[in-house]
Amino acid sequence: MRIKKILTMALATALSFGMASSMLVPNTVYAKELTETVSEDVSNESLDDNKTVGTAETAGTATFSMDRSQMTEEQRNKYDQVLSGERFELKEGESVVIASDDEGAISIKCVGSRTETNLARASWETSYQNYEIYKTILDKKTLLATVALECTWYKNGIDGYIQNLKGTYTEKNSAWLCSWDDTKSALPHHHALWLNLTSLGSSHSVMFAADYHAFNETLTFGIQ
Amino acid sequence: MKKYIIALAAIVCLFLISVSLYKVSANKREQSKAEEYSEYLSQIVEDDFTGINGIESAKAIVSYDKAQDQYSVELSLITDEDISEDQVEIYKSVLRKTYDGVKLTINGVIR
Questions:
Q1: CA distances from A13 to A33, A35, A125, B11, B77 (A)
Q2: Residue B48 sits at the chain A interface (C-beta within 8 Å)
Q3: How many distinct structural domains can be found in chain A?
Q4: pLDDT at position A120
Q5: By the number of CB atoms within 10 A of the CB, which of A6, A34, B91, B108 ranks highest?
Q6: Are A181 and A80 part of one and the same domain?
Q7: Domain range holding A23?
Q8: What is the pLDDT of residues A112-168, one digit of tens each?
Q9: Contact, A205 vs A189, CB < 8 A?
């Protein structure tokens, strides 16, 4: 009888927590299909969710450890910058370690960057930046996800502004799930999106930002 | 019957506790992101102004008012030459594009 009571209470507790979390977390990461690619726009005018189907790949995982001593000097410096809350602009080919734990290091690499001028409207520009997110365990590098940023902005000195920042992630490893955080920023000169990376044992949040610089009429992408 | 009512009450209580815990946790996460983003924006402002000729250093503090959903900035510049009023107005105009509250100090004087 006592065991039955305990079992009933345990079941009730589990159900209660389950109900609470499912009601309060609209983008429950573990329920999302691995083949889904999610796009999310941040705009001063409107939010436009555009869901498309992408592909996902799987890769093996291991449980070796990596600490600072296993990073190159360049990786260590950039890792320290990120940990100290410093913003970071990656040029094509550059990478930065954003997190490190007993199971390895997570890094982001910029794999492409370009800006196009709209020929029909000379002051309108669209800038693109593509990233790859890796988990490195010893020397084994596993691609977790890719992120593509697209930013449309108006180049006009002080009166310039960012129209929108669109981020698209594609999951590449079944052990890691991505989701865009509900937190967003859409200030005239600064837009930002937060990407949550979740695995069974850990969770990380990366900010992807686009920033318009009025004095020199340029746009940069930053991560933090 | 009484047992079932107690069990039901317990479930409701646990549910409410879970909701409260989640809300507290979500607020903390949101607050943390706002603080991180404010720090990020501070660095952007400092970098932008440090790049201007005549400005030796720039120190910015960006803060976020959640209730008003507004950002404000306090920017302190050290310059090696006088900054004209026109130039000061340009600096303020740039900052006002993003920040609802702007406090600009140049060489210790509020402008």
A1: 27, 32, 54, 7, 57
A2: yes
A3: 2
A4: 72
A5: B91
A6: yes
A7: 1-29
A8: 999 998 777 778 999 999 999 999 888 789 999 999 999 999 999 999 999 999 999
A9: no
